[in-house]
């Protein structure tokens, strides 16, 4: 994997982006310390927006959810 210093990356950004889009993976470093890894994006790697209700049917919420452990909450929330 190629390591490119940040100055070179700024100078040749267009070429580096094109190379990355074509599959070349490289690391950008500052003072010899690796900072970021540049990899090409693929359509499958982009995360989809999460929707409300995506766990419907997989979990259940008890009917007494809002009042569960009220005694414990009250005990720990009292000033000492």
Automatic annotation (TrEMBL):
<comment type="similarity">
    <text>Belongs to the phD/YefM antitoxin family.</text>
</comment>
<comment type="function">
    <text>Antitoxin component of a type II toxin-antitoxin (TA) system.</text>
</comment>
<protein>
    <recommendedName>
        <fullName>Antitoxin</fullName>
    </recommendedName>
</protein>
<dbReference type="InterPro" id="IPR006442">
    <property type="entry name" value="Antitoxin_Phd/YefM"/>
</dbReference>
<dbReference type="InterPro" id="IPR036165">
    <property type="entry name" value="YefM-like_sf"/>
</dbReference>
<dbReference type="Pfam" id="PF02604">
    <property type="entry name" value="PhdYeFM_antitox"/>
</dbReference>
């Amino acid at each position: 994997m190629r390591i490119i210093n940040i100055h070179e990356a700024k100078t040749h950004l267009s070429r580096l982006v094109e190379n990355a889009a074509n599959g070349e993976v490289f690391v950008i470093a500052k003072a010899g310390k690796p900072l970021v890894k540049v990899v090409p994006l693929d359509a499958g790697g982009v995360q989809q927006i999460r929707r409300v209700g995506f766990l419907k049917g997989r979990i259940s919420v008890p009917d007494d959810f809002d009042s569960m452990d009220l005694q414990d909450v009250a005990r720990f929330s009292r000033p000492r």
